[in-house]
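Priority: medium. Attachment 1 of 2:
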């Protein structure tokens, strides 16, 4: 078979023209392909293990030739998981981390419909509206998972949850959280049914400094896009508008930093 040879009965891919290599590159580079095929790429032992622990199905393990004799965690290998090895230069060519990690995988995506969301009546949630940069989305998911947020709503999302940059910046946090996609109207109707207030981070004139708000009841912290913030619709639907005070000449923070401050403050107050 073109592009293969066998060493100790292990399959080793050597050709850039191999169909698997083309598939990996396609799933790394094209959001449309990830959505159409229901597949995405996870690179790195830590991220991959976290995906497996949370029930994601691994279709194919792709391993650097230096790991041919490396034992793999049982959770990453079963009778249905295909496994192949890549020559060093080929692995480094398709690796987004220059081969510093020695393992990647093709993984099946999950549905994130609002009707399937795991709701907890006692939780604090994060709502992310129209964020465009996968790195920012990943950073917020990493912080949300680390802080102990109960779940995340992606509203009118403009980026791909399974983008390699999102997964990398989340350090696998993307796999650890209940996450639902929704439109702004759908999420407001859903939260109204749950009697759950929205705390909207906005520069609105009526906004109060974030540390003056009572977070001891369940609620949703809402942050908006990097350029425009929250939509007028969501701001108007919010029960409370909040703001992070700034010292001149700075008038805003990176959205992932702002979200992190708000999440940790709200959770700390609730726990106390």
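Attachment 2 of 2:
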């Amino acid at each position: 078979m073109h592009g293969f040879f066998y060493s100790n009965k292990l399959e080793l891919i050597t050709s850039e023209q191999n169909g698997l290599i083309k598939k990996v590159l396609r799933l790394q580079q094209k959001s449309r392909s990830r959505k159409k095929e229901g597949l995405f790429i996870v690179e790195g032992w830590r991220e991959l293990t976290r995906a497996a622990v949370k029930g994601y199905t691994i279709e194919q393990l792709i391993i650097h030739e230096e790991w041919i004799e490396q034992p793999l965690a049982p959770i990453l290998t079963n009778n249905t998981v295909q496994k192949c090895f890549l020559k060093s230069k080929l692995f480094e060519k398709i690796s987004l981390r220059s081969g510093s990690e020695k393992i990647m995988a093709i993984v099946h995506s999950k549905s994130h419909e609002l009707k399937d969301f795991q709701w907890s009546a006692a939780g604090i949630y994060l709502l992310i509206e129209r964020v465009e940069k996968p790195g920012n989305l990943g950073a917020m998911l990493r912080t949300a998972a680390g802080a102990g947020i109960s779940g995340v709503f992606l509203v009118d999302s403009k980026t791909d949850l399974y983008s390699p940059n999102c997964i990398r910046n989340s350090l696998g946090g993307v796999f650890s959280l209940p996450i639902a996609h929704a439109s702004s109207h759908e999420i407001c109707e859903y939260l109204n049914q749950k009697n759950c207030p929205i705390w909207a981070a906005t520069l609105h004139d009526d906004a109060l400094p974030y540390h003056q708000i009572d977070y001891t009841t369940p609620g949703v912290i809402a942050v908006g896009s990097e350029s425009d913030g929250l939509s007028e619709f969501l701001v108007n639907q919010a029960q409370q508008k909040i703001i992070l005070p700034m010292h001149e000449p700075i008038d805003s923070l990176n959205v992932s930093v702002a979200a992190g401050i708000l999440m940790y403050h709200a959770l700390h107050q609730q726990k106390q």
